Amino acid sequence: MAAVKVVPHTHWDREWYLPFQSFRLRLVGLVDRLLDFMEADHRYRFTLDGQLATVEDYLEIRAEAEARIRRLVEAKRLAVGPWQVLMDEFFVSGETIIRNLEQGLRRGDELGGAMRVGYLPDMFGHVAQMPQILTLASTTQSSGAECPPRSGHTSSSGRHPTDRRFEPSSCRRATGTLGRCSTFPVESRARSRRSSGRCGTSTVTSPC
C-alpha cells in the first residue's frame, strides 16, 4: 500500500479583504498556538507558507519568540522560506524575483535554515523563467507547480528559447530543492533580467 504524507501548513495573505493589521492579529494568534503545539508534541512538523514575511511580521509583535522559532527551524520541524514574500510573478521584474529569493534564503538561514524547496502556493500561474530562476539557485529536484508549455514560450524539445541548456519537460517543473543564495552567478542574473517570456494568457488572473 502506498504511503500518504500529509504536510501541515498555512497560506497567509498579508492584506486581502481585511487591512494588514487585522490579518496580522490572526497571524499572531495562529503562530502563538502553533509554537505551543509543536513544543508539546515533538512529532509535529509545519510549513510556514514559503515566505519569511510571516515570521518577520510575527516577530515585530512577539520579538521574544525568535529563539523558539529558531530552535524549531534548526531541528528541521518548522519550514520557513525560501521566499521573502510570495509575489505575483506577472507584476514584478525578473530581478525582483531573484532578489526576493536571495533575501528569503539569507534571512531563513539566519533563523536556522531556509527550506530548500521552490514553494509557490496559490499563484496565478507562473512566468516561463521560473524554472530557470530555480535552476540558477541550484535546483536539483523539480515537481509540483502547474504551468503547461504554451506555443512561443517553450520549444518543442522542452527547452526555453532563451536558454538552450535548460531542459525541463514542461513548466510544471517549477519547484525544487534550492541551493544557497550565493549560488546565483552575476552573469546568470543578467541573463535572467534579459529574459522576457511568460506563460499563460494575456490576463494575469487567468491560471496557466
What structural category arises from helix and sheet content? mainly alpha
Low-pLDDT windows of residues: 139-208
**Overall outline:** globular
Walk across the major sheet and give the strand order. Answer: 1-2
Largest β sheet strand count, sense and barrel closure: 2 strands, parallel
Q: Which bin fits the share of residues in helices?
A: 25-40%
List the secondary-structure elements in sequence, H or E. Answer: HEHHEHHH
**Gap from first CA to last CA:** 33 Å
Please count the beta strands (DSSP E, at least 2 residues each): 2
Instruction: Give the rounded overall mean pLDDT.
Output: 73
Strand content: under 5%
The tally of helices reads: 6
- Evaluate the radius of gyration: 18 Å
Task: Walk me through the structure.
By secondary structure, this protein is mainly alpha-helical. The protein has helices spanning 20-40, 53-59, 66-74, 94-110, 130-136, 186-194; strands at 46-47, 78-79. It has a two-stranded parallel sheet. The two termini are 33 Å apart. Mean pLDDT is 73; it is low at 139-208.
SSE order and pairing:
Layout: H1 20-40, E1 46-47, H2 53-59, H3 66-74, E2 78-79, H4 94-110, H5 130-136, H6 186-194
Parallel strand pairs: 1-2
